[in-house]
Predict the 3D structure of the following.
Amino acid sequence: MSDIFETVKRNIKIAEVVEDYGVHLNYQGQGLCPFHKEKTPSFSVKREDNIFKCFGCGESGDAITFVAKLKGIEPIEAARELAERYHIEVGESKPSKTATITDYLKRCIADIGKTNYFEKRELSRATIRKFCLGYDEYHKSVVIPYSSKLTYYQTRSIEEKAFFKPKTEDAGPEPVFNIEGLRHRSKEPIFVVESPICAMSVYQSGGNCIATCGTGGWKKVIEEVKKKRPLGGFILCFDNDDAGQKASGAMMAELVALGVQVIAYNIAGECKDPNEQLMANPKKLEDAVKAAKLKLRKQYATAKDSFDALELQGENVEPPIWIVRDVLPTGLAILCAPSKIGKSWMMLQLGLAVAEGKEFLDFKTNQSGVLYYALEDSKSRLKDRLNKMLKGRKAPTALRFVTEADPVDRGLLDKIDEELRTFPGIKLIIIDTLQKVRGRAMRNESVYSGDYREMAMFKEYADKHKVCMLFVHHLRKMLDEADVFNMISGSTALMGAADSIFIISKKKRNDQNATLSMVGRDIQQSDLVIAFTTLDYKWVVEGTAEEVEYRKEREEYENSTIVQTIKELVKRNPLKGWCGTVDDLKKEIYDITGKQIADTNAAVGKAIEKFEYRLYCDDIEHKVTRTSSARKHCFVRKLPQQPYGYQATIYDRTDNDE
């Protein structure tokens, strides 16, 4: 008994065994353990000692132990299975109706050196060993076993080119060639060809391949797929003739109906089949195999798959889908504001604008259905606000309301699914407020992790259904003038997970104007000054923060008695202008405007410096002169620029210093 164990262990390699039984090893000899569920490889082989070890579940041992554990059989049965699979002579006989076939194939394998047929077909020695190819010297035929179990085969005469297959009563029905490649649980795609030599050609060129052994054999592949679906999909590479293309189309239709990833790809180029291409140009076949894999990957790619920059540059990528042009795309969005500032009024205004296809805050909208979860409002309040906004107009049916909702961990998204199926035109989902639909925190979960988990769930849903989910949320009471987005209540995960963020803020609660700050992945960061009008019960845009600030400064400039007086003094003295101290200017202000300046001289001086640039833009230059007794401000009409070489008369503008 010990002889079979030692003989088997001495003649097999642990890495080859575990890979043949479905464990994909990386270059370090590591893979996912087949004995327990895991996402990070903890299973490894030690080639020099011919053993395996899993650091996750603790299983370890040699190849016999591995097979016994994997298949749930006794070690002696595992040793016998390995001996049969790898054709190791152990001095035991196992009665079988296919024993005669197995013995015949073993003799043929031993005689493979008596022919160079496969070398002429450009198959390497490694490929010949891998597929246990043999030679029948008596019949002058090459022998091709269908699997390493050596239970079925075909021969091909090297003289007459005739094929022979054993009788069904002797060997059973004809299987798929290299069925191990079909049952392998890796994510490598499976190439499907007609002949075993073509399958070996594809294997040698870098592809996992099976052969149907005739155009009708694809039906056997379909039956195998129904039993256990491969992970990597199929690439159909039948011969380049009418029969091959017809079989390819029929098989593709069946695989598509089963929901299996599949493409048809001509890896043979101008040749009849892959082996002819291998003989004509091995590099071309290798490149075609790589290209076929890439095509399958691209056709069924998900966001988890990588892509290169050049590929992206040439791809026709769908642009953002806008709910509100340049402001609100589909995806996950958050609107944050202090309580009782009018955010619910804004959400109702947005819902009406999108449902009617009208402008919102001076931005165009794309008309679509709106589902508004007004979870802090009653029907009576909604009706009152709706009527105040519409002013007698009929409300749009594309705007729908909900006043109660379950949390996200108790059916919210299932209910939204139902609404979207019933009303497929809905593209904007407003949930007012986020806190009303938050789920329960998971055990030992941090605030950040909980926030990100829930927001990622909402974002995934919005992206999948190509809708915008807009959540209303609150700001902290603590003001942050450096960055208003730091005022969002909760962890930074809320902002990090969202595609678009909007903040409504005021410096003082009783300020008439508010600032709407916007930032997002597909929108430009900007600030709008907005105001709520009780006449129309709507938020209106006053302009950008820069525009409003400019108007405010301009208004202050135009209404300043200091500026009005300076302009009048320059008008009265068009050539020499006016010079005087601040006290002199105060007297002139009183004489010209009738208003008395209560500001200190220093305050008036700062006001002059503040308005100096705007005065210059109005063609009035300001200069300061100093005497031993006083500091004087001079205002003169700016001379127009003259052409080069023009000699202008220079006036003495200090005559009025007295």
About this structure: The CA atoms of residues 267 and 288 lie 5 Å apart.
